[in-house]
Fold this sequence. Notes:
single chain; about 230 residues; mainly beta; Porin; 8-stranded antiparallel barrel; 6-stranded antiparallel β-sheet; about 10% helix; binds nickel (II) ion
Amino acid sequence: MKQASKLGLSALAMGLILASGSALAYEKGNIVVRAGLAMVDPQDDSTELTLNGASLDGTSVTVDDDTQLGLTLTYMVTDKVGVSLLGATPFKHTVTAKGAPVDNLKTAEVKHLPPTITVQYFPMDAQSAFQPYVGIGLNYTTFFQEELTSDFKDALGDGNIKLDDSFGYALQVGADYKLSNNVVLNASIWTIDIDTTATIDLESGSQIKTDVDIDPMVYMVGVGYQF
Ligand code: NI
């Protein structure tokens, strides 16, 4: 994630925190739909790549960030507790191999969907237009349309790449600022545990493997509507 956009998100979050006004809080039975830009910013870490089971010293992979349309839907179970689902259009990431003999080799493009469900707590009282929340929950990430790049194929020959699906925890902090009884501004941050194993089966018969902890921060800013 670029520093400037991080600053922009921080400024918006601060603006939400400093703003004040009067509007009604959420109530049991409310549904809040929020839409905006969602960025998945991997804080990735990988094991060394293996070739046919043998470690390739000093190698690793990295995963770049991507921004897509994010959607969250929250159902208020009580006045202060909501259950929220995060959805998005598919994220697309480039996986790059690091270390000799293939330093900085763009290896694959992968898409994923990271549906995440969290239970959220809204601590503020009914008069507050500012409604921060914290959430804890579960993420399921499924990878699809994994494709080796032409750079990779030129270097090592054709093959197939597959990334395993991932189950993990998700933690969230966010805030709504209610512009009216129905319209909110929203900013939210998740940290999500996404761990996968990437396997490349080359046509030569060789197999390359690595375990990757993607463990992204997810940043979303948008607007919402309360029903
Ligand atoms: Ni992890």
